[in-house]
Amino acid sequence: MPRTDTVRAVPDDQAPREPCFVSFLSDYGTRDEFVGVCKAIMVELAPDVRIIDVTHDVAPFDVRGGALTLVRAIQYLPTGVVLAIIDPGVGTDRRAVAVEVERGVLIGPDNGLLAPSVAMLGGAQRAFSLTNTEYQLPAPGGTFAGRDVMAPAAGHLAAGVDLVELGDEIDPASLVPGLLPLPQELADGRIDGEVLWVDHFGNAQLNVDPEMLIARGVGPGDAIEVHVGDAIRRARWVGTYADARASELVVITDSYGLLALALDRQSAAAQLGARPGTSVLIVPPGVEGALGADETPIELREAPR
């Protein structure tokens, strides 16, 4: 079995360094050994490394979902290395890359996963394709680049290896962009958005900024009409989940500054049949055909099984 002592070691006379953080995100889950093996490789290469598990429960192959998860977290992660692996194109000619930003280096497949976070951190300063096999593990097959290419790169950087050693420098403009959906502001005042994310509690985050409602004369306490699939509901803008009445659908500004659909202590997503990518049409008061103020709460129904 390949071991990390088959790759180039860090010089013994290297001066002591502060421990490096590696923030690790993937779609590997925790049932299999994938996460543990990647972390073991990094620790063997950099014994003082401190690894933060951002999450390993991104839906399998969901590059967009992973990119959104990472960009929500990135501003809170410590300076150092970010290792993000959601790689449905593993084994193809897609590149594994390391992108240097002001606060460290992001490592992952070049499939758009890193792009929103790179932008959030001020853009790429340099970028490299991970082509130097001296800093990789021998691969018995081409299906686990996270173990054989990307985790070793993160470990070597944590141990003090210079980024330029890991491969060929590439033009940052050649990196695959992240394509995240933007809401459409319609001429009649409606907002055509979609669900970005459903959290553990069933709150459905939208790609809609609260300022879009404010610009239409809607403020906290007011109600809007929400179309989710074939359902049409009234949702009141509240400040906290506890402000919602029993079984009342509400809209709230979430902890990331975007609007979210919620029910108090229940899953709004389950009740609405919403998931990431579900279209949501917001109709402010006064738009022709909007529900009246007396057409109110969502009716609870058994969630789909």
What does this structure look like?
The protein folds into 2 domains: 4-174, S-adenosyl-l-methionine hydroxide adenosyltransferase, N-terminal (Rossmann fold, 3-Layer(aba) Sandwich), CATH 3.40.50; 184-283, Elongation Factor Tu (Ef-tu), domain 3. It is 17% helix and 25% strand. It is α+β, with helices and mostly antiparallel strands and 305 residues long. The radius of gyration is 23 Å and the shape is elongated. It is built from 6 helices and 15 strands.
Which key features would you list for this structure?
6 helices; 305 residues; 2 domains; 7-stranded mixed beta barrel; 7-stranded mixed beta sheet; 17% helix; elongated; Rossmann fold; alpha+beta; disordered C terminus; Elongation Factor Tu (Ef-tu), domain 3
